[in-house]
Amino acid sequence: MRSAPPARLLRGALTAVLALGLSATVLAQPSVAADGWDRCPDNAVCGFSQPEYQGDMIVIRKPMLSLGSWDNRIRSYVVKLSGYSSAVCLHPEPGLDPEGATHSYFSESLDESSHPELDRAVSSVDIGPEADDFCGSESRYPMLWDVVKKRPTTLPATGAFGDMDRDGHADVVSRNMVGQLWTTHAYTSPGRTVLVGGGWDTMTKLTRHGDFDGDLNEDVLARDKAGVLWLYPGNGKGWFKPRVKIGGGWNTMRDLAAAGDLTGDGKADLLASDSAGVLWTYPGNGKGWFGARKQIGGGWKSINELVGAGDMNSDKKADLVARDTAGKLWLYPGNGRGWFGARKLIGTGGWNGHKELAGLGDVTGDGRPDLVAHAWGSYVGEGHFLLRVYPGTADGRLQAPRDLAQVRSTHFVF
């Protein structure tokens, strides 16, 4: 029987933080075996190729979808993190798949642990404060609560967006900490959560609002780091057909918002505000790209969030919701000709407390479009925020919010 690990190896149970930087480095075994705790650098989880914290060492500083050459090699590990929580989650499957995963706060030699089945069977690792999700699906995508209701079958075109799989329920699209994109459906929906794919952390802007290419499926627009705008045409099943390049030069835009049919021609349009504070309409042609842009006006530097929320005031025209730098929320009623009427105050203040705002159409099933907010607050566990739904009213105002999901702080949901 091997001797118990030194007491200092258990100090990893005290605290944790997700240290951003290189995901992993590998260090060869020294000629004289050293204490595993001493070999492992601070703010990391270290895996060892031998029991009792010996052998070659991999240094893990952030969640890893795959361990590469270290797949199925880890036999013991040290948790040497600092911060609020020393959580680590070991997954036998790549991609942080929760099936068979084990959550721990302690440094352990796997062969003598309570989960020896993970000895030489770890393929991906989650670390840091948010690994406190106990290795569940919520670490990869939002788990929607029962606020989402089936929409009326008579929902007008101005409200028929936000449904990725055409099952009559609003869906969320989310990008997680490792660049995966997911489409998530409510518990009451017959649809299923779908992994769209990886590599979405190369995108600096993501927006959606209905059909842009004329096939009646919900699409997504994405701008990459080089400033290229792409259309990802939906297939009506929760993921996409091959993407289409719209064009370059979009890094000059501070914000983009897919806002539905603003021009009244039955085709979805795009709004963009540039660095000078000018707002532009890019009229959609119904085939997946846009005609010549038209200037709406200047002075939009005071606006830090644009949301295509649908027909908020029941006049059968697409509207815009905007948040200003003072934290006020405004409704800009569309006139059906590509610009807006006099704005209306629908939130007197405090809206800068929300990280992001999104329009998903009718979430609550009452036939009116709603607003979804990424809501911060001390009532949410560390490393998390709430998705909250503000139900819309017939005259463009918002009702008291309802909780939609608890989401990891590293997720972007739209």
TrEMBL record:
InterPro entries, per the entry: FG-GAP, Integrin_alpha_N
Keyword tRNA-binding in annotation: no
Coiled coil: none
Keyword tags: Signal
Record keyword Coiled coil present: no
Signal sequence extent: 1-28
The organism's place on the tree of life at top rank: Bacteria
Protein name: FG-GAP-like repeat-containing protein
Organism: Streptomyces zaomyceticus
